[in-house]
Structures are given as structure tokens and as C-alpha cells.
Structure prediction request, 222 residues.
Amino acid sequence: MTGFTNRLQSVFQENASCQNAGAMQKYMKDNFPFLGIKTDLRRALLKQVWQEHKDEVSQHPRKLAKQLYALPQREYHYCTIEILLKELKKKYRKEDITLIEFMLVKHSWWDSVDVLAKYMLGDYLKQYPDETHMVIQRFSDSENMWLNRSAILFQLGYKKTTDMHILFSECLKHKHSKEFFIQKAIGWALREYGKTNPEAVRDFVNGAGLKPLSEREALKNL
Prediction:
């Protein structure tokens, strides 16, 4: 472990709360252990330790990400994502898709996957648009449901630059899925694009034969 990781663990242990941890674990369906550090405090503590080890973090963000993501408690996973979003923004390397995929499939749940899909995968593919078709096809064809969800959601922040063909074809490809998180993702992605192109979304939904949950979510604000 590095100086940054050791210091963060030490500070987090000092601020852990068993009472908070129980409630937080329950909210996340007991998928992960928690230290019980609520968001505002966690961010304040991370900021403090980050400042103390600024050079280490800026020089080795990927290495730190692997160390923090290896820890079981959920707070460390949130910190990993926040560090990478800041340190890698517009500075992705082509091989970072391996790191993004690793984080999408490890410790997977909606709270991490949705941020990673929109902000990391989405920004990575803006920086390397020629990789989009290959990456999204691979994620979409995967047996991992969270990679499928990411392939549907990665354009959430794209607005007018959304590739409508990719969005609609992903929705059609997964429309028969019985997975709640896939049905919900289809509706969410369409609803978001509907803010930019309501007519196209309405026409698509009317002819797509989506599951009721997807359709309801897609048309919620139209």
C-alpha cells in the first residue's frame, strides 16, 4: 500500500460508525460492507488526504485505483471513482478501457456502475470515438448485465451528440431482458435523449415493443 492509501484507511477508520454502516449496508441490499461514513464527511476526509498526497495521486491515479478497489468497504470504491474522474478527465490513455471495464464488473451495483458508465466510459469514448463501435459491441454482447447496462447508458450526457442509431439499436437488442436494471436503463437512456429529441424518442417507443417498465420510464416527461 502507498502513503496515500494507508493514510486514507487510517483517517476512515477513525471516522467509522457502526450505526451508520448498518443502515448504509441495508440500503445497498447488503451487497457491500460499509465503514458508515456519510457522503459529505467522506468527501471532506478524502479531500484532506488527497491534499496531503497531491503529487502521489496525480502521478499514480491508476495504481491507487487498483489498491482502493481491492478494499472491501464501499466508501473506498466511491473514492476511487472520484479520484479517477478528476485525474483522468480528458487525459485518458487508450488502454484505460481495461481499467474502466475492470471497475464496471468488480463490486458492481447501480451506484457505481451508473457513474462509471456516464462519466468514465462516456468521456473515454468522447476522447476515442473510433473505439466506440468495438467497445460498445463487446459490452453489449457480454454475459455481464452491468456491461450491458453501461452500453445502454454511456451516452447519458451526450445530448445533441448522441448517436441515435447506437442508442436505439441497444434498446432493441436488450428489450426482451427480464433484468430490472436493463429495463430501467432503456427507459432512462430514452427519457434523457427525449429532452433533446422528443419526437424521435416518441416515434421509436411507439414502434419498439418495449417492456412496460422501459416504456413508462422513457415517456415519463414527454
